Amino acid sequence: MKPLQEQKLWMYEKMVESRHFEDLIKRAYFEGKQPVFNMAKGPLPGEMHLSDGQEPCAVGVCAHLAPQDSVTATHRPHHTAIAKGVNLNAMASEIFGRANGLSGGRGGHMHLFDKAVNFCCSGIIAQGMGPAVGAAMASKLRGQQHVAVAFIGEGAANQGAFHETLNLAAVWNAPVVFVIEDNAYGISVAKRAATAIERNADRAVAYGMPGVFVPGNDPDLVFDVAGEAVARARAGEGPSLIEIETIRLEGHFMGDAEGYRPEGEKDALHARDPIKLYRARLENQDIPPADLDKIEQVAKQRVSAAFEHARQSPAPVSEDAFTTVFA
Amino acid sequence: MEKKRKLTIAKAMSEAIALEMRTSPEVLVMGEDIAKLGGVFGNTQGLLDEFGPDRVRDTPISETAFIGTAVGMAAAGMKPVVELMFVDFFGVCMDAIYNLAAKQSYFSGGNVTCPMVLMTSVGGGYGDAGQHSQALFATFGHLPGLKVVIPSNAYDAKGMMAAAISDPNPVVFMFHKALQGMGWLGTVPRSITHVPEERYTIALDHAHIVREGRDITLVGLGHTVHLALDAAAELEGEGIEAEVIDLRSIAPLDRETIIRSVAKTGALISVDDDYHSYGVGAEILANVAEQDDLHLKAPLKRISYPDIPVPFAPEMEHAVLPNAGKIVTAARKLLKESAHV
């Protein structure tokens, strides 16, 4: 399944939007945290997990999804949220802990919920997989054709939840797609030191579902493979597992010194920046650079406006901490 | 005279679930052995026959997966009633319960709710040892975002189950094995009660005064309500009028009813079969101790399960479980020392 030109341009736009979002996070994150790094300080307290480099996973999959389809994402959720169409202003506000954020500042960057586009994420590894199966089963039991996608990292494939949910989804023929974003590291531990097999996609065999490895962090290849898996789920043919080879251009979290990486690895990774590579491909396909510039400009403006919106939004009052614990 | 329908808690639970399933297509039941078997503890009997395998789903032994799945279904507006066969099994699936279900409303600012019921059996006393006999009320009651309830009789079980399924929040619906009405477990006869055929609900945030008295307040939940009632009957013979409160729920805890009762009686014994330290009794006693206008005639007392795993041999297990005799002895001692008897 090859992307049409408009789908390619959409993927490019969303990748740029996501990267610019992270770029603005980077600037804001260290406000108040210098010269001494203190995670509690500044407008963005707490851990911050950036998605730089992993954008192809999000756009290649979400290009096939409608708002009614569900996505559960990881502790590194910004690229996925943006590709799924989460309200950008409300998302930025949430990350800044503002009263008009997605949850009024109760969740923060690892706990983004947008009901309008059926997006949520969890800070606990692999634990979004069950809820994705649940969303998929709700659709199936209601006779709808909506699908669900659970995004996880490669480290999550070593969690019990991974194996339990793949099995359950297969037994129940759930319209769900499991997507592994393999960025080669679980925080500091290299995949090869933590995972018994080379390809997590091979684990699909154990659960009687297709498992496809997508090399090269390539949006078009992800689009192709995800398109088939989503179509398969929509047609009632059951779950699939996709393993995407991707790269993490930043540390596990902001402030990570990344001493665990081999020398020269970061430079090599930046040379494979998927956004640069994709732009070059689009230019080679005779898309005028001015058109791409325009797309970039619009995407960046949208993100900048969202950050402006967030920064100017009021903080919650302390009493808000006590509401919405229960419905 | 009204015809009595004597039901067990197990039957009352399945009847309540069936009533909700008939009127709400969003309700479905999932768990281990809940379909063909009707639940190891009988609380889903007859549901498969009436509602079929789409809505009454046996699951693999994969609690993490199916409780997580229930959270996703609830987010999508369905109302899953899920069984965690023994509360002791929570260790393999707690994230789905306390990080997902309990926080779905909060993390979404109230935009995504989690209308699910997690049924789970609690309690020992029948020689099943330390991985199948715990109560663990406090473990769940400690966690914000969960409602935690336990009926002491069949009438309550039906009304509380209807209320739990209708609740937009995750409700941990515990049922005590000593009250369940399964022949092979033995059952406190008092838990088998008249249960009306029609649907009714019992509020999940109100304790119930099951026996009025002026001399001492006995607070229990689930099985220990019956121990307290047995103790109250014995104390009555000694001229001590005990008031017995059935908590019905520990989250939320009906603090007012307890305080009002203790204000009247001036003495309190809390009785539960969960571990002692940081437990239900500790919360109830603290709740009373924090009141500055109560005139107590005796120290506050809690009877609970000691801080040890549940042993297998009956000589050990029965000795350490709460019983009516321990309550009677404690009540006598408190009231004697207070010189009000």
Overview features:
heterodimer; A: 327 residues; alpha/beta; Rossmann fold; 6-stranded parallel beta sheet; 11 helices; globular; B: 341 residues; 2 domains; 12 helices; oxidoreductase activity (chain B)
What report would you give on this structure?
Chain B: GO terms for molecular function: oxidoreductase activity. Chain B: Pfam families: Transket_pyr, Transketolase_C. Chain B: Its cofactor is thiamine diphosphate. Chain B: Residues 7-182 form the Transketolase-like pyrimidine-binding domain. The complex is a heterodimer of chains A (327) and B (341). Chain A has one domain (5-311): 3-Layer(aba) Sandwich (Rossmann fold), CATH 3.40.50.970. Chain A is 41% helix and 10% strand. Chain A is built from eleven helices and eight strands. In chain A, the strands form two sheets. In chain A, strands 2-1-3-4-8-7 form a six-stranded parallel β-sheet, sandwiched between helices. In chain A, strands 5-6 form a two-stranded antiparallel ribbon. In chain A, α6 (160-171) links the parallel β3 (148-153) and β4. In chain A, α1 (5-29) crosses α3 (78-84). Chain A is globular, with a radius of gyration of 19 Å. Chain A starts with a helix and ends in a 15-residue tail after the last helix. By secondary structure, chain B is α/β, with parallel strands linked by helices. Chain B starts with 5 loop residues before the first strand and ends with a helix. The mean pLDDT of chain B is 96. Chains A and B meet through α5 and α6 of A and α3, α4 and α5 of B.
